[in-house]
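Protein chain data
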Amino acid sequence: MSIDAVVDPEAPAPEPVARIGETRGERLRRVLSSRAASVVAIVIAALWTIPTFGLFVSSFRTDADIRTSGWWTAFADPNFTLDTYNYVLYSDSQGGGLIVNLVNTVVITIVGVVVPVAFAAMAAYALSWIKFRGRNLLYVGIFALQVVPLQMALIPLLSFFSKGLQVGGVTIMPAWELSGVNTIIQVWIAHSIFGLPLAIFLLHNFMRELPGDVMEAARIDGASHSQIFRKVVLPLVTPALASIGIFQFLWVWNDFLVGRTFAPGEATRPLTAVLGDMAGTWGFGWTRLPAAAFIAIIVPLLVFLLLQRYFVRGLLAGSVKG
């Protein structure tokens, strides 16, 4: 038997398991972009979405149907209604009137995102491109604040708001004595304080990767630090700002502990506090909880979908130098 009969010269050569010169990152990227990886990702996404889909279906079911059968039986005998949404948003009865709490959450979240991200951007620029004594020590101190648990700061901060600040019997800051709707200021300050360390740390890493030649050229043209920050740095770090803003938005919107501690009044309670009562020990509104929970979900979902492009760009920013 000849060699030509055994080996077909026109047959394609088998693909090697590991390509010559392929780095570990390239090999991992090739594996993750394969058809099998795509199928696994689709299966995980479907399993992850099933509970949310069940919550969505249950939110349109009647009280009697929720008590007697599971959400998956709704398609055999459809009986959907919007009465539950109308009740939880506008009813004055127990477990209703969430439109006020929804507005409170929106007001808390807008300020709780804009203020820390704005201050973090200015602080990150100063720590990255303005030389002053103690800059590295200050950055290490800000980084170290991330390890402080949120729960440890609640009582001191609450004491600061209610009793003020006294050192050696000398009053440095009097008691705030806030009440009613004004207590929402305490929530804004608390969210800003707790969100600043991580935001400064992440933005500092992004800004340090900006090309120094651009900064030097702006200084040669006579631009001040404020002009460089507004006209050069902010447009370049917009994806990073969007990513950090999304993270801060989700954290503030879904927060329960801070809103419950610093805004306990009925007029300022966020939506999460009411949801906690509905699903609490007594569970007085558990059949209306799917509709209320989906109302709390829909806004963060829309924000993420609208800013998804900037979110992905922000995650990739700084990963490749040059």
About this structure: The chain is about 65% helix and 0% strand. The chain has a mean pLDDT of 81. The first strand starts at residue 165 and ends at 167. Strands lie at 165-167, 170-173.
